[in-house]
Amino acid sequence: MRIENPAFNYDKLGHKYSGYRQTDPRIARYVYDALGDAKTVLNVGAGSGSYEPTDRYVIALEPSVVMRKQRLEKNLFPAVNGMADALPFDDNSFDASMAMVTVHHWPDIPKGLKELRRVTKNQVIIMTFDPFSLYDFWNYKYFPEVVEVERQRYPSIEFISNAIGGQCEVIPIPIPFDCIDGFQEAFYGRPEEFLKKEVRQSQSAWGFISEEAENQMVKALADDLSSGEWDRKFGHFRAQPSFKCALRLIVAWP
Length: 254
Description:
Blueprint lengths: L9 H4 L3 H4 L4 H11 L4 E5 L12 E5 L3 H9 L22 E5 L8 H11 L4 E6 L14 H10 L3 H8 L2 E6 L2 E2 L20 H5 L9 H17 L1 H6 L7 E2 L3 E7 L1
């Protein structure tokens, strides 16, 4: 499978996104610590507002009308309609900028990252997944096509760091067992969640998979859960309080 366009159609498929993709406070702590004393923050690819700080001035930029409406339903400030590779702001407009699990959707990732650097005085903060660590999670045994989609879409940590420039710190983030941000690794110890269509619809990689292939992969997991095979192979994850796999926070200073 080759992904020609990495962008997920949130206007068509993202109507219930904010119900399953929420700010997990334990992950958020890493983001807020990285923001330091920044008073003005740009959030690019802001979606429904996950991980936006509430104690400083934030401008959100989001191209999807569906996601912008979900912000309003959550009583967040409206977002600017715009794209990462053409930010409508002057140089050094913000103390810090952030992009939370969004760069893999951008048609022109290098240009978008350079734009973030251009409009930001100090730290640029990127939350993403390391494509070289995706196979450390058991889901590739059941959803190989989904993991391959993710591997193609996520740029490498080195690529992101080089594109932003400056001095970069890469922080592996542990995922808590009861994580409320419903990306795939959030359910490392709760595999039954993958049987819910609404959960899969909040994970953009499934949008690149045919319905037939999706049904086959989900049935394989359901069968192994029913027979106890999943627990024989991976049941130890149910007792693991956190899981450190592919989630990364990149903090780049000029």
